[in-house]
Amino acid sequence: MFKIGDFSKLSQVSAKTLRYYDEIDLFKPGEIDRFTGYRYYTMAQLARLHRILALKDLGLSLEQIRRLLDEALPAAQIHGMLKLKQAEIEQHIEDDQARLARVAALLRQIEQEDTMPTQEVVIKRIEPQRVAAIRDVVPTFPAQGQLWGELDTYLGQHHITPIGPCLTIYHDPEYREHDVELEVCEPVAGAVTGEGRVKVYELPAVETMACILHHGDFQNVGETYNALLRWIETNGYRISGCNREVYLLAVADPHTQAKYPADYLTDSDDKRVTEIQFPIEKV
User: Same domain, yes or no, for 265 and 182?
Assistant: First the structure.
C-alpha cells in the first residue's frame, strides 16, 4: 500500500485534493491506520481516481461525478446529464466567440481613429419592472414634457412615490423627428393602479440590451446614439425592439407633485446622466 504522499506522486493529484475527496466521500483511502490516522492507498484504486479526473475534465461537478460512480444511474440519466453539460459548454464557446468579436471590433475602431473610444457600450440583461406609464404620439421629442407633467400629477395626487429612475420608451420602428410615438414611465411598487391615460403594468425583461451612457443635456445626444448604433452594426448585432432612455440623473422639476428619490436627481443639466438602451440580437 502507498502512503498518501507516495500515492500523490504516483497519481499526480495533490495530497490536499486526496484528503478533500475523502472528506466528501468521493475517493476514500484503501485503509486508514486507526492509531496514526494515516491514509493508505492501493494501486487498484488508480482506476477510480482516473475516472474522477476524466469526468472532472469534462466539466462535471464533484457531486455529479460521485453520483455517476456510486449510484448506478441508468444510461438515460447519464445521457441527459452529459447533454446538459454539452449545451453549457457550447454556450460558453458562443459567449467567448462573441467576446472575441467585440475585441476585434474595438481593435479596428482604435486603428481607424487612432484613439481609444471615450464611450463604452455594455451588454446586459434588464430585469422586469412595474411601471406607471402614459403612451401617446407627440409632435416633437421635447413635447413629451407634457406627458411627464400629466403622469407626475397623477402620482402626486395618489401619493405614489417612484422607486427608481424614470424612463422613456420609443415605439416608432424607425427614427422620426415629428409625430413621435413614445411612452413615459415611472417605476412603482405595491398595490398601484392606473386610471384613464395612466396604465400600470410590468415592463418585460430584456435578455440582451446594448447600453451606453450620455452625459449632460440633450444637445449632442445624437452623437451618443450614433456611437451606439455603430457599435451594434460593427459587432454583428441588429436592433430587436423599442429603445429606451433611462434618466439615471435628471434635473428636478420645481413644480413636481410626486416625491422623487434624491439619488436620481441633480441640480444641473451638465450633471445629467442618461442611459440609452437598445434591445439587440445576433445577425
Answer: yes
pTM of the predicted structure, to 2 decimals: 0.70
Query: In which domain, by residue range, is 66 found?
Result: 2-70
pLDDT digits (tens, 9 = 90+) for 100-127: 888 888 888 788 777 777 778 999 999 9
- What is the count of structural domains for the chain? 3
**CATH at 49:** 1.10.1660.10
- How far apart are alpha carbons 218 and 145 in whole angstroms? 14
Reported as a single tens digit per residue, the pLDDT across 193-228 is: 899 999 999 999 999 999 999 999 998 999 999 999
- Distance between CA 253 and CA 251 in Å, rounded? 6
Q: DSSP characters for 223-235?
A: HHHHHHHHHHHHT
Buried b (16+ CB within 10 A) or exposed e, 232-256: bebbebebebbbbbbbbebeeeeee
